UniProtKB/TrEMBL annotation:
Organism (species): Pardalotus punctatus (spotted pardalote)
Gene: Uroc1
Protein name: HUTU hydratase
Coiled-coil residues: none
UniProt-listed Gene3D superfamilies: Urocanase like domains (3.40.50.10730)
A GO MF label: urocanate hydratase activity
Every Urocanase Rossmann-like domain range: 2-214
SUPFAM superfamilies: Urocanase
Any one of the GO BP annotations: L-histidine catabolic process
InterPro entries cross-referenced by the UniProt entry: Urocanase-like (IPR023637), Urocanase_central_sf (IPR038364), Urocanase_Rossmann-like (IPR035085), Urocanase_sf (IPR036190)
Highest taxon above the source species: Eukaryota
């Protein structure tokens, strides 16, 4: 319902075939995102750093494909988008790398390859394993979290700033991003990322929340 209503409200589209939805998280509640994309008929690319979560969703049948190669992900995205095939593709890697690759594609080809975007990392708990920084691999980041939580926190906040910078570039070209109620925008703001709504008070963000703006 969230994906369908985002399409209706922001793309003015009842039919999401050929539309691309990019997000992250295939763990607990976020695991349904892959299934939702296919039910809605769009191309869903979902990033997840934990391979165990990807394998679980694939085994369930909620996730159609898994890849750790961004070149392959972009090729599959282009193919499914062109043929208007419903697809759920799990990218085994950090979502920041995925967003930055989509910016690169926009900069080099002029193509905006994503229509809808969100995030379901556990940003309500960003410094204790809810969000993994792009600068490190998954196992390396877990080790740093236990040995040097202060450094881990710094890397998370740097990563959040990169995360938002990439989203902002794509949103400026017409991609519609929303907050999934996971404190992503709040933590990004605390990290110093550019998420404030221009001309509004500090408690308002430039991107909508799925509760008030989409489900409501």
């Amino acid at each position: 319902l969230t994906v369908l209503n985002a399409g209706r409200r922001y793309l003015k589209a009842e039919d999401l075939s050929g539309k691309v939805f990019v997000t992250s998280g295939l763990g607990g509640m976020s695991g349904a995102q892959a299934k939702a994309a296919v039910i809605a008929g769009c191309v869903g690319i979902i990033a997840e750093v934990d391979e165990a979560a990807l394998l679980k969703r694939h085994k369930q049948g909620w996730l159609m494909e898994i890849s750790n190669n961004l070149d392959h992900c972009i090729a599959r995205l282009r193919e499914a988008r062109k043929k208007k095939i419903a697809l759920s593709l799990g990218y085994h890697g950090n979502v920041v790398d995925l967003w930055e690759r989509l910016v690169y594609e926009l900069d080099t080809t002029g193509e905006l390859l994503v229509d809808l975007g969100s995030d379901q990392t556990s940003c309500h708990n960003p410094f204790n394993g809810g969000y993994y920084p792009v600068q490190l691999g998954f196992e390396e980041a877990k080790q740093l979290l236990s040995t040097n939580p202060g450094k881990f926190r710094t890397l998370v906040q740097e990563s959040l700033k990169r995360h938002v910078a990439a989203i902002n570039k794509l949103a400026d070209k017409g991609m519609f991003f929303w907050d999934y109620g996971n404190a992503f925008l709040l933590e990004a703001q605390r990290a110093g990322a550019d998420v404030a709504k221009k001309g509004a008070n500090k408690t308002e963000f430039r991107y909508p929340s799925y509760v008030q703006h989409i489900m409501g």
